[in-house]
């Protein structure tokens, strides 16, 4: 799959919610499925590179929709200021004071809270100095993680303090988005949903004075910019972020999302034209036309029931990331009327969602239910065979589900009954195309609904050929 994993996130792995079960797989588990799509390199870290996405972007002038692979002309490097002036914006100043807000809006300061931090900040429990996020060389924040005309960055924590940035937005709690955030973070306020905020303090011990939770569907004024978070239908706590600048320009950053028809009834999206769309392009390829989440859940339940009829002594396992895919095991739990077993560390995370129905479905003893959640990296024959040995008196077989869009195959398409599991001995593994990212056709429908002036892809941007292809899709979708 051409996966490239950035080795060091700088994260503090000695966190209370990461117990030994997670530790071996930690780096992989905290990355969601979108991560697997990075083809060449994670992102264009270095704005100076001749063949970087930003270089292409700048070379293309205002008609950047014709982005092409690296070419000879335009050797001269352009700077971010050119991009801003291109969009009729002034370069953001390092600190922006909030103008008096309209009365109905909530106004938040973007002032760095250093002064309000407790005296112990920067020290760990044993009073040793907290190490900086990473000892790697500082990276340069790529332009597509900045919101022009604002002091904002989105999902850009691995670059340390970003010049001119005083507010850091986090779309959701997946490692490839929060990477770089540690308990030593002190570069500025972090804005995110309440659920994500809880995870930042619970799992990463980020100092809460830096974490500023926002409610969904509520308009806030931050540094003079109206900001609204909208449900992204990705993992719990994931949000689309809508920015409206004083100039009237609107930007929508999707973070990771699964586009859905219901988003076409979001009042804000109906009311205001989006000028620039930062789009999750994980599956921006027509070969990814996977079925709806609901169809996959029905299928998973059907397979489970059939399997249990044939072999009643079956342990059912669902693979999951740190967060995400909860609906898969919840659907089985409801259909069979059984509880869900998850490790203590995972339970802490799941309880933090504050979903009472969901919390009451969890149980603390593995022997009390046939439905277990394990890290998705555990879905290997040998690992599951070993796991089954713990329950030798209870179960004779394992039925496991690996729910990710990457299991989608064009030959199966939406005909889920065509899926063939892989079996070895008494272990059977089903790869099911349950995706929390948009399929190609869902992306297309969303873009056609939104009709933005420009689209900036945020995933698969490391490869010029892929970028070119995506731009051709965008042009097609925005015609007429
Ligand atoms: Zn994600």
From TrEMBL:
Which residue ranges have biased composition labelled Basic and acidic residues?
30-40
Q: Where is the composition biased (Acidic residues)?
A: 41-52
Major site of localization recorded for this protein: nucleus
InterPro entries associated with the record: DRMBL, RibonucZ/Hydroxyglut_hydro
According to the UniProt record, where is the region Disordered?
30-52
The record ties this protein, via CDD domains, to:
SNM1A-1C-like_MBL-fold
Q: Where in the cell is it found?
A: Nucleus
- What are the entry keywords? DNA damage, DNA repair, Nucleus
Q: What GO MF terms are annotated?
A: 5'-3' DNA exonuclease activity; damaged DNA binding
Q: Name one Pfam family in it.
A: DRMBL
The domain of life is: Eukaryota
Domain DNA repair metallo-beta-lactamase, by residue range, is 359-463
Q: Does the keyword Nucleus apply?
A: yes
Q: Which GO terms describe its biological process?
A: double-strand break repair via nonhomologous end joining; interstrand cross-link repair
Q: Name one GO cellular component term.
A: nucleus
UniProt lists the family membership as follows: Belongs to the DNA repair metallo-beta-lactamase (DRMBL) family.
Protein name in UniProt: DNA repair metallo-beta-lactamase domain-containing protein
């Amino acid at each position: 799959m051409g996966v490239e994993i950035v080795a060091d996130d700088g994260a503090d792995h000695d966190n209370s919610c990461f117990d030994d079960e997670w530790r071996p797989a930690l780096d992989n588990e905290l990355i969601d499925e979108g991560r697997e799509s990075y083809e060449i390199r994670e992102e264009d870290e270095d704005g100076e590179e001749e063949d970087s996405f930003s270089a292409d972007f700048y070379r293309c002038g205002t008609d950047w929709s014709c982005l092409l692979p690296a070419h000879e002309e335009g050797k001269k490097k352009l700077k971010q200021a050119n991009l801003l002036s291109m969009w009729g914006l002034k370069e953001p100043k390092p600190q922006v004071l909030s103008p008096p807000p309209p009365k109905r809006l909530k106004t938040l300061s973007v002032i760095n809270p250093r002064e309000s931090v407790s005296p112990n900040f920067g020290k760990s429990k044993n009073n040793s100095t907290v190490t900086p996020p990473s000892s790697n060389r500082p990276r340069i924040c790529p332009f597509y993680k900045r919101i022009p005309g604002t002091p904002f960055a989105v999902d850009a924590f691995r670059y340390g303090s970003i010049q001119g940035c005083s507010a850091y937005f986090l779309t959701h709690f997946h490692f490839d988005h929060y990477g770089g955030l540690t308990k030593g973070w002190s570069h500025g306020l972090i804005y995110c949903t309440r659920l994500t905020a809880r995870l930042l303090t619970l799992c990463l011990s980020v100092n809460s004075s830096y974490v500023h939770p926002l409610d969904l569907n509520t308009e806030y004024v931050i540094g003079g910019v109206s900001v609204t978070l909208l449900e992204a239908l990705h993992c719990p706590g994931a949000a689309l972020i809508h920015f409206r600048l004083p100039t009237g320009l609107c930007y929508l950053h999707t973070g990771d999302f699964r586009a859905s028809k219901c988003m076409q009834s979001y009042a804000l999206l109906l009311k205001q034209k989006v000028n620039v769309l930062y789009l999750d392009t994980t599956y921006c390829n027509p070969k990814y036309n996977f079925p709806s989440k609901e169809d996959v859940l029905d299928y998973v339940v059907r397979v489970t029931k059939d399997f249990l009829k044939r072999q009643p002594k079956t342990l059912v396992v669902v693979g999951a990331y740190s967060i995400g895919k909860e609906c898969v095991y919840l659907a089985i739990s409801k259909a069979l009327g059984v509880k869900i077993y998850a490790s203590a560390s995972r339970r802490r995370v799941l309880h933090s969602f504050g979903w009472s129905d969901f919390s009451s479905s969890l149980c603390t003893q593995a022997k009390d239910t046939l439905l277990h959640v394990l890290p998705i990296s555990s879905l290997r024959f040998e690992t599951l065979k070993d796991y089954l040995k713990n329950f030798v008196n209870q179960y004779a077989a394992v039925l496991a589900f690996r729910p990710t869009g990457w299991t989608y195959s064009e030959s199966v398409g939406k005909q889920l009954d065509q899926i063939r599991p892989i079996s070895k001995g008494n272990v059977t593994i089903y790869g099911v195309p349950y995706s929390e990212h948009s399929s190609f056709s869902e992306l297309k429908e969303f873009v056609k609904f939104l009709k933005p002036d420009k689209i900036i892809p945020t995933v698969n941007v490391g490869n010029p050929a892929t970028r070119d292809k995506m731009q051709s899709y965008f042009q097609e979708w925005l015609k007429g």
